[in-house]
Each structure stands twice: as structure tokens, then as C-alpha cells.
Design a protein that fits this description.
Elements: H1 15-27, E1 42-46, E2 49-53, H2 56-62, H3 68-87
Antiparallel strand pairs: 1-2
Helix pairs in contact: 2-3
Length: 88
Amino acid sequence: MDDAYDGPHAREPQIEDLTRICSALNAAGARYLLIGGSRDAETLTIDGVVIPVPSLPTLIRMKETKRPSDATDRLYLEQLLKAQRDEA
């Protein structure tokens, strides 16, 4: 991985890691939202596991910073949101 101290058991995260964690949280009745919190959350289903994620408008608000990378992300997300609205 990235750090010399990662040790022999370190590995890149896999989507199965996310679904295992979210599945355990769902089974425990936990309320959570990945990547920020919002009342307008959406859900993804991966391998039968429901995963709450922020909506596009929430992601756009999260990218309202002065960082150049966030400006690029925000532009992409705004274009994606416009395309979704145009389809509706």
C-alpha cells in the first residue's frame, strides 16, 4: 500500500469490505450515511446490501470549497445533476 509500516496484512480496500461493514450496520439497525450526512440521502444496493449515500445536491454542497480539485468535482457533479433533470 502507501506506507512502509502497513505490514504484511495490509491491502487495498475492496467493495466487499464496504458491503460487509454496511451489512453489519444494517443488521444492527444503525442509522448512517456514507460521505457526509443529509436528509436527502439516496440508496445504492450492492450485492444485496442497501448503502445510504448523499444525493447529488448534497455532494455539490460538500464540494463548495476553495480547493481546485473540489471545483473540478463540483463542475462534473453539476453537469451530472443537470443531465438527470433534463431526462426527467
